[in-house]
Amino acid sequence: MAAGPEEDHRAPDRDRGGLDAEAVGRLLGSPDPEALLAAVLEAADPGPQRTARIGVLYHCEGEGLLRMVAQRGVAEELLEPFRVISAEAELPAARVVRDREPLYTVPEVRDGAKAAAGAMPASPLAEYVALPLLLGSHGVGSMLLDLPGGELVEPARHRDLLTLAALGAHRLDQLLGAGRGRAGGAPDTGAPRMVPTQAPDRATLLEMAMASAGIGSFDWDLVSGRLVWDERLCRMFGIAPQDFDHRIETLFDAVHPEDRETLDQALTESLQTGRFTVRHRIRRRDDRAVRWIEVESRVVYGSGGQARGMIGVCRDVTDEQNQDEERLARKDFVLAITRAFTGAATAEDIVATMADTVLPALGGQRMAIFLRAPDGQIRLFGSRGFAPEHRERLDWISRIGADNPYLAPLREGEPMFLSSREEFLERIGDPRLEPLPGLHSWAILPLSTADGLLGVCAIVYHRPHVFSPDEQVLGAGLAGILAQSLARARLFDERRAHLTELQQMMLPRRLPPLPGLEVLVRYRPGSRGLEVGGDWYDALPQPDGRVTLVIGDVQGHNARAAGVMGQLRIAMRMQAEDGRGRAELMSRAGLTLYRMDTDLFATCCIAEICPASGALHVVRAGHPHPLLLQPDGSAAPLEVPGGMPLGIFPDETYPVTEATLAEGAVLLLYTDGLVERPGVDHDEAVAALCERLTHWGGPGTADPAPGTDLDRLAEQVINPAVSASFGDDVAVLLVRRNPAAGAAPVDTPPPSRAAPRP
Predict the structure, then answer these.
(1) 214-316 has which CATH code?
(2) Which of 204, 218, 357, 618 sits between 20 and 30 A of 419, alpha carbons compared?
(3) Which of 500, 729, 514 has its CA nearest to residue 607?
(4) What's the predicted TM-score (pTM) here?
(5) Residues annotated as region Disordered (predicted)?
(6) Residue 118 has pLDDT above 50, yes or no
(7) CATH class entry, domain 334-500
(8) Least confident of 9-18, 494-503, 619-628, 717-726
(9) Residue by residue, what is the 3-state secondary structure of 258-293?
């Protein structure tokens, strides 16, 4: 008979389950218990990287005892006390035979397998699975197998272990069932007992193993078209075995419409490769439930090499698929919040991201974040969903709860998941910390970094909420990401505050008295990371009563730009005090910058005003045109021909533009951060600014109190630019001619950027 395509002997994909076929064959033919245990270990984990395979095999004896018949990888002296154990012992090897279900040391398992701490020797069997070896309702023995590295037992892995236990039970009974003592005439103590069995053939053993693992089989005759399903496969599809009509169309009718093409393609390719494995959805006939199944099939070839049929097995992998999807969703969620936290620059930004994005995704209704202050104490930093009076209580709780012994797990980096008010009161143990009314569940996550406990994040639920193992793992991972992000953001806040303070030191803290003029300054640092800009302003009174106003912007957003700005501002003040005129002052500033050891340039605008006459002289070096708001409310740019920015050429000259500042009129000098927007034309942005000024300057809008309405105008001008958060610095200098103003110096307010909170 001609052979089909060469079989693929690659190792099975552990994530999708599967046993090593050759090892299973050796198991079924093992000559003694030692070989049986070795084959089980190899079949359970065929990977070549495993250098030590550890296991113990017990056989049920008479008088309610279990006798060790094989072991691998454990020192003999460690096992000496456990050679023979009572079937009533609380050891895992005995418990699993009584309970007839596996027992794991791994804390997170699937498919109903229990989690427990084993009583076997702690070393080297530190983490293992105990499996009962059963023939029907009778116990043959038990096996203990180590799980490498605290393995998370997924459904496919769990089914593989059950299959090995079923195969091992039959082979062990063949080897020892007729020779070693059975319960016989011993009194019935409830202990596991052996029953005489007839040694089944290999086909029977495989059939029983498939039954225990819930695997169905099929045989499809390609010549006649007849499809044969076993009883398990019929029930998997929701069809009574007697109602199955053996038509391939029945299979395709059950396949989910979106997966039919996938199955068609797999069947077509199998005729070329001789095998296929495919996972797809079906809709059961009886309850119309959608289930995922995985099909593995081989092509059967005739003597001439032509494909005559297919045989294969199917298993329901719905739970496995759902967990894969949940795992992928968790991964996407973690990546999404990581990206969100990365894009949040400050600690307050991260708290807002946590509240707006993470809290709803976790199903919580309230949130509070406590961070360690410079004095070492934990203090409330931010919250969401709590009333102001509740926030005061939260801050008070953070103070009195700092030394609560019941909160020691948090200080050690262990999260606390409290599913009810009763559990909260029981575990916290301090009546002063009784939760607010209406709160029923809490995920309290320690925010730990390499430097210790940074703080605590509490996610609060309005209803009782039982936290699944997956939610607890996700919460712990989230806490780590949040802690690292907050640590980075707090460092950012501190460095940003220092840079902003340095920049502010280079700007005038107050403007001198300017009789006849109302002057108001607004400055907002940009929001682009740790960058600081080179925007500056100044007011220089002249001996003859005139006033020289300067505004400028050094290229760049860094400490270097801020340093150049400080030097240039000081140089211009000194040159102005020497009595240089407007044009000469601008030219000398350009020469000064040109001679500096820098490749930066700067834009600048100088406006000289005579408060008595309103005479206005303006010089511009690549800077935005000033805006003039007339007393009648009209606003428009003041066209000022200018020259190149400062620092490009050493001998640049600048023309002077003459105009008049009427009594009550307002001159607006500003830097480009006020109007520049990505994708917005500069002229359109200036026109929109003039429109805002016109609305403000209309009839009935002026305030008789000097300065108050000018202050409101400044906010109206600058707030849209600041709220847009495009990152550039914004400096605004407003001047109104008012003969009654200017008797006192004008304070320059600090920038609006808040200093980092503790």
Answers:
(1) 3.30.450.20
(2) 357
(3) 514
(4) 0.51
(5) 1-25
(6) no
(7) alpha beta
(8) 9-18
(9) HHHHHHHHHHHHHHHHCEEEEEEEEECCCCCCEEEE
